[in-house]
Amino acid sequence: MKTLNSKQISYLRGLGHTLNPVVMIGDKGLSETVLREIDISLKAHELIKIKVMGDDRALRVKMLEEICEKLASVAVQHIGKQLVIYRRADKPKIILP
Fold it and tell me: pTM of the full predicted structure?
């Protein structure tokens, strides 16, 4: 996945603001099942919000990096326990500026 410029990230942050979390990562962490669910959601929506239940910020950052690496996606935003990620679909629904 190519990197996005600041204007594109800002645009996606604006879109992500109104989203509800579609995947929640619980106490068991980032399992293969959770990764598969995130992959399915990215295929369907391109831009998704994930809620992480843990209080450890460093662990959340590590999870975000792992998700982006394994699923060829881009981290758009990380605020508190919310992660917003983007992956362009074969037939894009979101037209980036």
Answer: 0.90
pLDDT of residue 13: 95
Domain count for the chain: 1
Helix (H, G, I), strand (E, B) or coil at 97: coil
27-34, Cβ contacts within 8 angstroms, sequence gap of 24 or more: 27/53, 27/54, 29/54, 29/59, 29/63, 30/63, 30/66, 30/67
Six-digit token string for 84: 């917003």
Please indicate, yes or no, if residue 76 is contained in any of the structural domains: yes
Containing structural domain, residue 36: 6-86
First-to-final CA distance of the chain:
17
**Where residue 37 sits, what CATH number does that domain have?**
3.30.110.60
Q: What is the pLDDT of residues 24-64, one digit of tens each?
A: 998 888 999 999 999 999 999 999 999 999 888 999 999 99
Q: Find residue 83's DSSP bridge partners.
A: 50, 78
